[in-house]
């Protein structure tokens, strides 16, 4: 993926995120994670995220970009680790639109002991995963 395409993807996500966050409190913590692999780029922006606050739904904005004319589709998902290290993988969100298309979702996850969350993007042929990338917070 070219630097221009990465900048456009990141810029599009940032603009959409700012619109969705306009009504949120100024003190709300956010995280944005992005990763890029052959044919796919994914971004997750997590809104109002505070480790240790249980029993609260945390807003997430997901984006996936198909950047290769290869006949394969791309997917994105939120991934996490609970306190103690148990991995959590949420459902894949798919973009079947083809090369140059983006797809976005506004969703949430229940904060029930999550220590960290990140993003995973992948390219698929049917249900067979061809390649993937993951981005986690720096520890």
Describe the protein in words:
By secondary structure, the protein is mainly β. It is built from 1 helix and 9 strands. It has one helix at 3-21, and strands spanning 30-37, 40-47, 56-66, 73-82, 87-89, 93-95, 102-111, 114-125, 128-135. The strands form 2 sheets. Strands 4, 5, 6, 8 and 9 form a 5-stranded antiparallel sheet that branches. It has a 4-stranded antiparallel sheet with strand order 1-2-3-7, covered by helices on one side. The longest helix is centred in the first third of the chain and has 19 residues, at 3-21. The protein starts with a helix and ends with a strand. The relative contact order is 0.23.
Strand content: over 45%
Mean pLDDT: 82
Number of helices: 1
Radius of gyration: 15 Å
Return the string of H and E elements: HEEEEEEEEE
* Uncertain segments: 13-28
Measured as a percent range, the helix fraction is 10-25%
Helix/strand-derived category reads mainly beta
Number of strands: 9
What separation lies between the terminal Cα atoms? 27 Å
| Shape estimate | elongated
Query: Could you give a short account of the major beta sheet?
Result: 5 strands, antiparallel
């Amino acid at each position: 993926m070219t630097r221009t395409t990465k900048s456009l993807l990141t810029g599009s996500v940032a603009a959409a995120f700012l619109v969705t966050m306009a009504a949120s409190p100024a003190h709300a913590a956010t995280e944005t994670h992005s990763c890029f692999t052959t044919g796919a780029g994914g971004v997750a922006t997590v809104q109002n995220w505070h480790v240790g606050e249980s029993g609260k739904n945390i807003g997430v904005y997901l984006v996936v970009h198909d950047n290769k004319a290869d006949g394969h589709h791309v997917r994105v998902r939120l991934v996490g680790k609970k306190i103690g290290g148990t991995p959590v993988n949420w459902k894949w969100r798919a973009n079947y639109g083809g090369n140059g298309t983006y797809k976005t979702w506004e969703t949430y996850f229940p904060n029930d002991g999550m220590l960290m969350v990140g993003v995973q993007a992948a390219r698929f042929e049917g249900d067979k995963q061809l390649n993937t990338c993951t981005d986690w917070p720096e520890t």
